[in-house]
Design goal:
The complex is a heterodimer.
Chain A: H1 3-31, H2 38-53, H3 63-86, H4 103-114, H5 124-127, H6 130-160, H7 170-196, E1 206-215, E2 221-227, H8 232-241, H9 262-286, H10 290-317, H11 320-324, H12 348-361, H13 376-387, H14 398-417, E3 423-424, E4 427-428, H15 431-456, E5 462-464, E6 471-473, H16 479-494, H17 509-539, H18 555-570, H19 574-590
Antiparallel strand pairs in A: 1-2, 3-4, 5-6
Chain B: H1 18-30, H2 34-37, H3 41-62, H4 69-106, E1 112-116, E2 125-129, E3 138-142, E4 151-155, E5 157-161, H5 163-166, E6 172-175, E7 182-183, E8 188-198, H6 206-215, H7 223-244, H8 246-257, H9 265-275, H10 278-297, E9 300-302, H11 305-313, E10 316-320, H12 321-325, E11 326-337, H13 343-354, H14 360-371, H15 380-383, E12 386-388, E13 396-401, E14 404-409, H16 411-420, H17 427-438, E15 442-448, E16 451-462, H18 466-475, E17 479-483, H19 488-498, E18 502-504, H20 509-521, E19 526-530, H21 536-541, E20 544-548, H22 553-558, E21 561-563, H23 570-594, H24 596-607, H25 626-650, H26 659-691
Parallel strand pairs in B: 10-17, 10-19, 17-18, 19-20, 20-21
Antiparallel strand pairs in B: 1-2, 1-3, 3-8, 4-7, 4-8, 5-6, 5-8, 9-21, 11-16, 12-13, 13-14, 14-15, 15-16
Classes of the chains: A mainly alpha, B alpha+beta.
Chain lengths: 591, 695
């Protein structure tokens, strides 16, 4: 890594960590329903929403009722988005006149945005009109993020409360997350992003003449270009803040209208990790011991920093094949050096490698470079981060609740080692919690491994093109790299990340359906056991800490937690990774 | 303090007693029954894998195998060994209990009992077989008779030999009423006679339950064991899927690379068995049984494994002052004369008042007078003195000698005695009394007629070493609470001297029960010991309740453990055994999971050697050939179970230390150890295979 890379990484972490405490403190006030400032301005709206929906904000829910509310709400969201996508052709605000999406694509996209995955089998500017983007996707960006945060808060209440059946009110948590956290932050970010050149309009696409004429593949001259337009800034702000990641345009954060400047790039990366990091602090405040929140944040950083450094280093090292050709791959004043294939010149190696790490550490999935073009090890980092279960920061809310499940497993093994029935924050971890935590930790690997196995066994290798009926390959690349492409797609779906390795044609029935199912299963099969744990923990009384209690805020515990995440979360993928990026890397080095 | 008064049979048995090993080997094969194997998901997976590879071996003999028959046989044999080793571990753990059960059974020969028609000594006797006695029957047991069944003494006092149960050869006194009124079937009356009401039907007696417990016949999984089992099963499922999906991955890779052949079933089974947590899975039930066994060797019978496990979780120990914290008897340590009284005079009076007093306190006063004040012992009868024994009405005792009325007793009682004779207690003397009470002592005031002569300071003697034990307990986060009938002042002083964290003074059974409930409401787990019937409610409420074997039947029923030694200090040992059980499980789980890293490095390059030869760079151990690499990993996986059997049976070493420290130490030993050991082990096995020409 170059000195410049270290400085950029350091600056990024410094700004991120500086924001953790104030934002975390603020969010704790929001969830504890204490005055937070904004409630004075928007309180009428909050109350109005409750009245409109007929919710009693004072009524507490048991975990089962809470889970039903989550499922019901997201189910309705899924149907509404599906309908919008199908009916796009007859809806207004569609200046390009795009037709309705196919049923598999509509299912895939609806599942994708409701689950906070934002996997995109389509290209935004060539498929969707403005109404669907705004009313469908942008709205789900907010609501899926708020759902994740609500579930987390319910789990935190389960840990903090004692001897009670209830874990809060989903409608209140959802409304307050959206109204007091996601909306104001998005507004602020969108406003800054517009200043950097991101578009926000309802104009039709703009034809412009090329300054430098070019020829197409057939040798015909190309003189003009059609520039896509739209209400992008609003959606891009929440796309990052809500760890959604669904791009307004096809190439996502690499598009100049989606991420034009180094500053916009910095802010977008910051926005991805901002809420997941700050939620650790919120957690600490809400359980009455801030050290607990810091310990988890440190554990996340302990995994994040080396992986970010590895990705940047792997990319900076370049490709031996080019070295053999005599190409200069060293960083210098005139060039970024390293492997620049698939990267934007305005971002270079560091900001591409860091972005890739950030977006896959969190379950965001926005990209500013093509992960498919990364070196094998550079590509292994984002893939592995997703396979860890999106717990290194992870999605807003979902990352921390996933991490807390790992904490339960770590506490269980460690607790036995100190000679007591394991307990976390005074709550005994027993068979039921282990059952649920095991589900949360083990369901995603199973989806990833089985999905990949089915795909490479045949169904995911070839497809019939919808227009011509011709049989085509799904994979752009044969060999180990092709395997990585499929593995990455299922990792992304099952981790609710949504980033694509690219190089895989996924807009066809098999992948649209398989990945859509993977996203739904990974999201809601996990939310239910998490809420079940919340309910079970809330019911328990709290054992006061003593010298015999395992401390869960010490460096030692951080080491243990990191070890658990790596051993339990990642060992499963060693054989698969060996056949994908690892062998690809070794082959690259040998040749 | 008595530690490890083992019952005779189990006393000096070594860990690997040859007859026991022989029996365990046979048991290991008997446990191959699939119905039995299915109870443990981890080992059942290995069992199925063994069957599968055996089938593959047969297939290869016929000539259509994917690997050489020799290799498949090697894997298959070692997989069977893995299953057998786990069975053996369990059988070894059970073996100790079985041996003890056998010796217990010998004491349960069928005897004839003297059944009484009515509960009177000279009532009509019917000779009845012990096995025909039912609850509520009344029997007479005379010297030399074995006690035919568990029961409650309704009349009589006798010395009883309980060595069959406790291993303690000294006879104990059993009598009707009070807290020593229960007798156990299988013990023997040595002197006098007892009339006993039978309290247990045949098959439900203490001896029967004890036999069942030590045999582990009705062993149920404990809560922590279940939770751990869930984690291990989940890991097994995910590794199963990781291995099964490897087949399509491999087929794809072969096609993509254009070389090699797909990974074989044998290798996949080998990889699976190496990855799933067989070490802890194979030893899990042995660890649990061995934990119960350690309790039994400490002469504690736990009614369930759950109780043993709960012992490790205890946060609060309720300890009776007398017998646990202090020696049973108070001793006189000082004489404080009233103003104007010579010390010699007080000493003389105190000695005279105590000469005929046979209580330990009385005797200690005579000893003090002799040792500290140089007064020779005298005989009350020689002096012609009349002994006035202690009575509940007057609450004083003493002698009448030459018209002198020398008395000693509690302050209020002596004050009343003196006032009746026109005297009063000087204020200085009252101060001395208060000071003694404040220091935790018991003041006895001595008076002669209307004149108070001074105070005897009776002191509770705190047991040697007990303070250090409490410091240890505090270090591991356990709060100690002293229970005493003393007044709060006295209790506070003794509590301070012994170093307990809290005390309950003027304790009544209701107060005890209330205290336990309060602690439990605060989320704490409470352990206590008790022997009397009035302890029963508290024993039933406590999470870990140890009844003294000498106690009443009601107390034993209410508790979840019985201490055969009737040693209240045993509670501390019980807690340690509980903790050790959990630590052993946690440590071996960590070890087992950490093992996987090395096994990947052994198997993955070998499994895909033909497709991607470049993966050989991951063969960091430089294992000779793909087949020797896989075989070495499988052999290591089997042998590590055997190697850890002693640890599983004995439990990992436990030192009382704070949780953070224990975690650090165990994480270093079993976490890092678990990471490193297989690298070394697999390499060594590979070298041996090469040396034997098997690679």
């Amino acid at each position: 890594m170059t000195a410049n890379a270290w400085i950029q990484l350091g600056l990024f972490l410094a700004v991120l960590l500086a924001a953790v405490k104030p934002l975390g403190w603020y969010m704790a006030r929001v969830y504890r329903r204490q005055p937070c400032g904004l409630d004075r301005v928007l309180g009428w709206l909050e109350r109005g929403i409750y009245r409109l929906g007929g919710f009693d904000p004072q009524r507490e829910m048991t975990w089962k009722v809470y889970a039903i509310a989550v499922l019901l709400f997201n189910g309705i969201g899924l149907l509404a988005l599906y309908a919008l996508l199908r009916l796009q052709g007859i809806l207004p605000l569609n200046p390009q006149g795009f037709p309705g999406a196919s049923s598999e694509l509509s299912f895939n996209t609806a599942a994708s945005f409701v689950t906070n995955t934002n996997w995109q089998s389509y290209g935004g500017e060539t498929t969707l009109g403005y109404l669907v983007q705004m009313l469908g996707l942008c709205v789900q960006n907010f609501l899926s993020a708020a759902t994740g945060m609500a579930v987390l808060v319910a789990l935190i209440r389960g840990l903090a409360r004692r001897s009670t059946e209830t874990i809060g009110n989903f409608w209140v948590d959802l409304t307050r997350s959206t109204l007091y956290i996601l909306l104001p932050l998005s507004l602020l970010l969108a406003w800054v992003l517009v200043s950097q050149g991101i578009v926000q309009n309802f104009s039709p696409y703009q034809p412009v003449a090329l300054l430098q004429p070019a020829t197409d593949a057939d040798g015909k001259p190309v003189t003009g270009q059609l520039l896509p337009m739209g209400p992008a800034a609003a959606q891009i702000a929440i796309k990052h803040l809500g760890t959604n990641g669904g791009g307004f345009f096809n190439v996502n954060g690499a598009h100049p209208y989606e991420n034009p400047m180094p500053l916009s790039n910095f802010l977008e990366m910051l926005a991805i990790l901002l809420i997941p990091a700050a939620l650790c602090y919120t957690f600490g405040v809400m359980v009455g011991d801030r050290r607990q929140g810091w310990a988890i944040l440190v554990a996340m950083l302990v995994i994040f920093v080396p992986l970010a450094a590895s990705a940047i280093t792997a990319e900076q090292m370049g490709v031996p094949a080019f070295t053999a050709l005599g190409a200069d791959q060293d960083a210098g004043d005139g060039q970024a050096g390293g492997n620049m294939e698939g990267k934007e010149v305005r971002f270079g190696i560091t900001n591409s490698g860091l972005f890739a790490t950030v977006t896959t550490a969190a379950s965001c999935g926005a990209v500013n470079s093509m992960h498919d073009s990364f070196t094998p090890l550079g590509g292994l980092v984002p893939m592995w981060l997703m396979q860890l279960g999106e717990v290194i920061f992870g999605g807003v809310g979902s990352g921390l609740y996933g991490m807390l499940m790992f904490v339960i497993v770590a506490v269980f093994v460690a607790g036995l080692m100190v000679g007591r029935t394991p307990e976390y924050l005074g709550k005994k971890v027993e068979a039921f919690e282990m059952k649920m935590a095991s589900l949360v930790i083990l369901v995603p690997p199973i989806i990833i491994l089985v999905g990949t196995a089915v795909a490479v066994a045949g169904p995911g290798l070839r497809y019939n093109a919808a227009d011509t009926g011709e049989i085509k390959d799904n994979l752009n690349n044969p060999g180990a790299h092709g395997f990585s492409e499929v593995l990455y797609a299922f990792s992304s779906a099952a981790a609710n990340n949504g980033s694509a390795f690219a190089g895989l044609t996924a807009n066809e029935p098999f992948y649209n359906t398989a990945l859509g199912l993977a996203m739904l299963m990974a999201r809601f099969w996990l939310i239910i056991p998490v809420l079940a744990v919340a309910g079970a923990l809330a019911r328990k009384s709290c054992t006061p800490a003593s010298a015999g209690t395992l401390p869960t805020h010490t460096p030692l515990f951080v080491v243990l937690l990191v070890g658990t995440v790596l051993l339990v979360g990642a060992l499963t993928f060693v054989p698969a990774l060996a056949l994908g990026p690892v062998v690809e890397h070794l082959q690259m080095m040998v040749r | 303090m008595k530690i490890h008064h083992m019952s005779a049979s189990a006393k000096a048995r070594p860990l690997f007693d040859p007859p026991m090993v022989r029996r365990a080997v046979i048991d290991a094969f008997q446990k191959l029954d699939p119905r039995y194997q299915a109870r443990n998901p981890v080992m059942f997976t290995v069992f199925v894998g063994s069957l599968l590879t055996t089938g593959l071996w047969v297939q290869s003999l016929v000539g259509s195998g994917q690997e050489s028959p020799g290799f498949i046989l090697g894997i298959s044999v070692w997989l069977w060994f893995t299953v057998l080793f786990a069975n053996f571990a369990e059988a070894m753990a059970e073996g100790r209990g079985k041996a003890q059960a056998d010796s217990l059974r010998q004491t349960r020969r069928d005897v004839f009992a003297k059944k009484l028609d009515e509960p009177r000594y000279n009532a009509n006797i019917t000779q009845t077989a012990a096995s025909a006695l039912r609850k509520g029957d009344v029997v007479l047991v005379v010297a030399g008779d074995p006690i035919p069944a568990d029961g409650e003494i309704i009349e009589g006092v006798a010395s009883v030999d309980e060595s069959a149960i406790t291993g303690e050869s000294a006879p104990v006194i059993r009598e009707s009423g009070g807290d020593r009124s229960s007798v156990t079937g299988g013990t023997r009356v040595l002197s006098d006679w007892l009339i006993v009401r039978v309290t247990a039907n045949p098959g439900e007696t203490f001896l029967d339950r004890m036999i069942a417990l030590v045999e582990g016949a009705k062993r149920q999984k404990t809560p922590n064991e279940i939770a751990l089992g869930i984690l291990l099963a989940a890991m097994t499922i995910v590794f199963l899927i990781a291995c099964v999906t490897l087949l399509p991955y491999s087929i794809y890779s072969v096609r993509a690379a254009g070389q090699g052949s797909p990974v074989t079933m044998t290798v996949l089974v080998a990889l699976l068995v190496c990855l799933i947590p067989t070490t802890i899975g194979g030893l899990l039930s042995a660890i649990g049984i061995a934990g119960m066994d350690r309790m039994i060797r400490a002469n504690v019978i736990a009614t369930s494994g759950r109780a043993v496990e709960a012992a490790g979780d205890v946060d609060v120990l309720l300890l009776d002052k007398t017998g646990t914290i202090t020696l049973g008897n108070r001793q006189a340590v000082e004489l404080i004369p009233a103003p104007g009284v010579k010390l010699e005079m007080l000493a003389d009076a105190a000695q005279l008042a105590s000469l005929a007093d046979e209580t330990p306190e009385g005797r200690s006063i005579v000893v003090l007078a002799k040792e500290k004040y140089g007064l020779r012992g005298r005989n009350v009868h020689d002096l012609g003195a009349a002994f006035i024994p202690f009575s509940a009405q007057t609450r004083i005792s003493g002698v009448d000698l030459d018209g002198q009325q020398i008395r000693k007793g509690a302050t209020e009682a002596i004050e009343a005695f003196v006032r009746n004779r026109g005297g009063s207690l000087p204020s200085e003397l009252r101060q001395s009394v208060e000071q003694i009470a404040k220091r935790g002592g018991t003041p006895l005031v001595v008076a002669e007629g209307s004149r108070a002569l001074g105070v005897i300071y009776l002191k509770d003697i705190v047991k040697g070493g007990i303070k250090e034990r409490f410091i240890e307990l505090r270090r591991i986060g356990i709060k100690t609470v002293m229970i005493t009938g003393d007044n709060p002042q006295t209790a506070a002083a003794i509590a301070a001297e012994a170093g307990v964290d809290d005390f309950l003074a003027e304790a009544t059974p209701e107060a005890k029960l209330r205290m336990i409930r309060e602690y439990q409401a605060g989320g704490r787990l409470v352990a206590m010991t008790g022997d009397g019937t009035n302890d029963s409610p508290a024993l039933a409420q406590a999470d870990v309740a140890v009844a003294m074997n000498s106690g009443t039947q009601a107390a034993k029923e209410a508790g979840n453990m019985v201490d055969l030694d009737s040693n209240p200090t045993k509670l501390i040992e019980i807690v340690e055994i509980g903790k050790q059980l959990l630590i052993t499980r946690g440590s071996l789980t960590t070890f087992s999971l950490a093992n996987d890293v090395a096994k990947y490095f052994a198997i993955i390059p070998a499994a895909f050697a033909s497709t991607y030869p470049v993966l050989d760079q991951l063969n960091v151990m430089r294992l000779a050939t793909p087949s020797s690499a896989i075989l070495s990993a499988v052999i290591f996986n089997a042998l590590i179970i055997v190697a850890l059997i002693p640890l599983a049976l004995r439990g990992v070493r436990y030192r009382p230390a704070a949780a953070a420290r224990l975690l650090r130490d165990n994480l270093v030993i079993y976490g890092i150890g678990g990471f490193v050991v297989p690298f070394v082990g697999i390499k060594l096995i590979d070298l041996v295979l090469v040396a034997l020409g098997l690679a």
